[in-house]
Structures are given as C-alpha cells and as structure tokens.
Design a protein that fits this description.
194 residues; alpha+beta; 2 domains; 24% strand
Length: 194
C-alpha cells in the first residue's frame, strides 16, 4: 500500500479525472433529458397556439454592463387542449442562450416567425398537455449540452492518461512480470537440455 502512494502524480491525476467524470455525469443527466424530450416531441399532438409575446432577453451582468453577455429568444404562447387553457414558453428542446453580437442576430432569426404574434402550430405532450413546444424534434441546439458533457469526459480521460504517462503506477509491475517470464524461459530451456 505504501508503494502505491509513491505514485502521487498518478493519484492526483486519478482524483482530478474522477472529479471531472462525476461533474460530467452530473451535467449529462439534464442533457440526456433534453435529448429525450426532443425525440419524444416529434410524436406529440399538434394544436394551434396564439403567440402572446416574442422578445429577446439580453443579460448585461459581468465586467461590462454596457455589452450583453448573452441573448435568449423568448416566446410565450397559449393553446387549448380539450377546452383547458395552457401557456408555454418552450421554443425547442435545446440551448438557446446565444453569446456576442452574432448571438443577437441569431436570436432575432429564431424570433422572426413569431414576431407579429401569429397563430402558429404547437405540439403538446398527450400525457402531460401542460408541456408543449413550437419546434419539435431534434435540432442542432439539442446536442449542445451533450457535446459539453462529452468534452468533460474527454478531458477526464486526458488527465488520467497524462497521469499514467507522467507516473506509470504499474510500470514496475510490468518489469517484474517480464523478469519472471525470462526466468521461466531460462528454467524451461535448462530442463529441456538436461
């Protein structure tokens, strides 16, 4: 056991990799839920909805309060299912927080179809009619969170690999195994001569 702790670089790399892996798993759960909803929504029931607001929410927190950090398109709409009124604000299942100046233009493009508060198609979950979306199914933005999670797992593997490379904990075991194999071969050769 004491010899294992001689490999402190590897142990630190292992601890960091485990922390990154656990954090990635923690963030993977919501990302997988987004993908599940995106997939399920392609089979939801279509209805008509009235757009009640379509705005861009710009967040100005951070170092510069004059330049927004990100822009988020927001659409609210109302619809009815079996005479029951509902409201929702889900445009699509995926990442809609858009950064920098190009982000504002992208947010504007997402809002364009909803700008004049038209009557649009919405898709609601037949098992839970309070859950609805305007753009069902997979979108490229649905994969954004999962890509970040994959990056986290890749970093964890990279840290673990660096730990093995900088301080291979089992290198001495490998040398011992090779020495044992050579000794066995020598004994077998000697026995075959005699």
């Amino acid at each position: 056991m004491a010899k294992l702790f001689q490999h402190w670089v590897f142990l630190i790399a292992l601890a960091i990799a485990l922390l990154i892996g656990v954090a990635s798993y923690y963030f993977a759960r919501p990302a997988l839920e987004v993908l599940r909803l995106a997939r399920a929504s392609s089979h939801w029931t279509e209805t008509t909805a009235q757009v009640t607001s379509a705005v861009i929410d710009s967040n100005y927190s951070g170092v510069s309060s004059s330049t927004p950090n990100y822009h988020t398109p927001q659409v609210r709409y109302s619809y009815e299912v079996n005479g029951q009124a509902y409201e929702s604000d889900t445009i699509l299942f995926g990442h809609l927080r858009l950064t920098n100046r190009a982000g504002k233009a992208a947010a504007q493009r997402i809002l364009d179809p909803y700008r004049n508060y038209p009557i649009v198609s919405a898709y609601y979950n037949p098992e839970n009619p309070a859950q609805a979306v305007l753009e069902p199914g997979f979108k490229l933005r649905s994969l954004h969170a999962l890509a970040n999670v994959g990056l986290g797992f890749a970093i964890a593997l990279g840290v673990l690999g660096a730990g093995f490379w900088l301080d291979p904990p089992f290198a001495k075991l490998s040398v011992i195994q090779q020495s044992t194999d050579v000794a066995k071969e020598a004994l077998l050769a000697e026995e075959s001569r005699g």
